[in-house]
Amino acid sequence: MTTTRLDLTRDQILTFRRVVNAIDGRLRPGPTSLRRAAWAGLQDSMPRAAVLSIHARVQGTGPDTWEDRSLVQLWGPRFSAYVVPARDRAVFSLGRLADGARQRRVAEDLAARLHAFLDGRTMTYGEAGAGLGVHPNRLRYAAPTGRVLIRWDGARQPGSRRVAAAARRGLRASSPRAAFRFARRRTPCGRETECLHPASCSSARAR
After folding, report:
1. DSSP codes, 34-48
2. Which of 168, 197, 163 lies closest to 182, judged by CA?
């Protein structure tokens, strides 16, 4: 049996990947575009990473676009947090349900217990785990049943005082502390960029 060799250039491969991943041109806002953007699932283990992925693909994306009714969040492959199309929920949940009877029984039993315990309520997975008497991470094993949706804001959420302290350190290290620290400079290609420390930049000119 002979096969024909397919010769592809680097540009052809990159173009194909841009098209199928919807990053060759940003789509118009709307459920159809959001579904296409999340067609293969968008990782959100680092909270709101999915928003950046949507922003690269869909016009008019805002901080809360990931909460659109056409999208849901669940524990997907490798039990990582994913934002997926609501219509395709089964693909990312039931499609991962184990074939083995024992693993399937564990998932279905855990999902049933969780459903009964929540009784329509919403709570942190730590609270839910404590209520069921299991480690919170074990709840992820119920995800392939398709009965568990999440809102992932990170495993550990520091208090506001600690966040403020970290933010102040970050601003001091990477941002200007006064207006005079800003300047405009021209790069060799002629583009203007912001320069944080014009005194140490020979091409800077303050405005």
Report:
1. HHHHTTT-EE-SSTT
2. 197
Domain spans, the chain: 10-145, 173-207
Residues of the chain with pLDDT > 90, as a percent, come to: 56
- List b or e across 141-179, with b for residues whose CB sees 16 or more CB atoms inside 10 angstroms: bbbbbbbbebebeeeeeeeeeeeeeeeeeeeeeeeeeee
pLDDT tens-place string over residues 106-165:
999 999 999 999 998 988 888 999 999 999 999 999 999 999 999 888 766 544 455 566
- pTM exceeds 0.85, yes or no: no
Q: Residue 32 to residues 29, 69, 82, 84: CA-CA distances in angstroms?
A: 8, 12, 18, 13
CA–CA separation, 58 and 66 (whole Å): 11
Per the CB < 8 A criterion, the answer to whether 107 and 96 are in contact is: no
